[in-house]
Design a protein that fits this description.
elongated; DNA polymerase, domain 1; alpha/beta; 49% helix; 2 domains; hydrolase; Rossmann fold; five-stranded parallel beta sheet; single chain
Length: 209
């Protein structure tokens, strides 16, 4: 269900998460690549992967790639190289979310678009050139490992709102995770939970875009 405060003229900027909002991702592909390199079943690894403080530190840019992969090597119990970890890590990207490119192009004619994603430097290096045309719709892209802050922390939203330069309540934020939506609402933004591109389309229609 869309927020009741979405109506024409209610926003001065639109802010989009990237994963599963703009770019489709599939973690199963990551585990499958790592398992193939390690010579084990993907199921052997899936239950061992945890988004812990090392993972969060990697997303904030405070944990190096080498340290993150070393942690994974121990956590997952597999002895594969950093290059093999990296190859599997970047296999997460599937392609643009269906229909999102046209929606972004249309929205950009009416309002400035921004992106805000929890992500790490290897992913940034991979997706930035691959999806350059899609990402070109955004005036600025805020990435957790570049700004040192990640959703759903209040400091992260405050940083992004200040950088955009409009009041929080005039920004509509799109994300696929409830915890990030809750964080945005607590920081004063309008927020739309995205389960499919259709949710983005309905929100834009409500905004008169």
């Amino acid at each position: 269900m869309l927020p009741s405060d979405l109506r024409p003229g209610a926003a001065d900027a639109l802010l989009f998460d990237l994963g599963r909002v703009v770019i489709d991702i599939d973690f199963v592909q990551v585990v499958s690549r790592w398992a193939a390199h390690a010579g084990c079943a993907p199921e052997h690894l899936a239950g061992r992967f945890v988004r812990d403080e090392i993972y969060h530190g990697h997303e904030r840019g405070t944990v190096s790639d080498a340290a993150f992969f070393a942690h994974l090597r121990t956590r997952l119990g597999i002895d594969i190289s950093d290059a093999q970890f990296l190859e599997g890590w970047n296999a997460i990207f599937v392609g643009p979310m269906p229909g999102i490119a046209a929606l972004l192009a249309r929205a950009a004619e009416s309002l400035p678009l921004y992106a805000f994603s929890n992500t790490n430097q290897p992913h940034i290096a991979h997706f930035s050139p691959v999806y350059a045309d899609l990402l070109g719709h955004f005036r600025e892209i805020f990435l957790s490992s570049s700004i040192g802050l990640r959703k759903p922390d209040a400091e992260a939203y405050d940083h992004v709102v200040q950088a955009i330069g409009v009041p929080a309540e005039r920004i509509v934020f799109f994300d696929d995770l409830t915890e990030n939506i809750d964080g945005a609402l607590a920081s004063g933004l309008k927020a739309v939970l995205v389960r499919s591109t259709g949710d983005v389309a309905m929100a834009l229609e409500a905004l008169g875009i």
